[in-house]
Amino acid sequence: MNGGRLLILVAALLGQAATGQNLIIKPRGREQAISDLRDQCMEFTEVKLGDKPGDLRECRVTEFGEFGAVDGQTYYYALYCLIPNYTPDEGKCNDGSFTAGYYRQRGLAVFVGDSSSAGAGLLFERVSSDIGTFIYLKPQIITTVDRTLLYLNVGFDGTGHYNASEYFMREGGAWTPVESEEWLKDLVRRLPAGLEIWKGVWPDLQTMTAEAGLYRFGDANCCPSGGTARIGLAIQSRRFILKSLVIEETK
Question: Model pTM?
Answer without folding.
Answer: 0.86
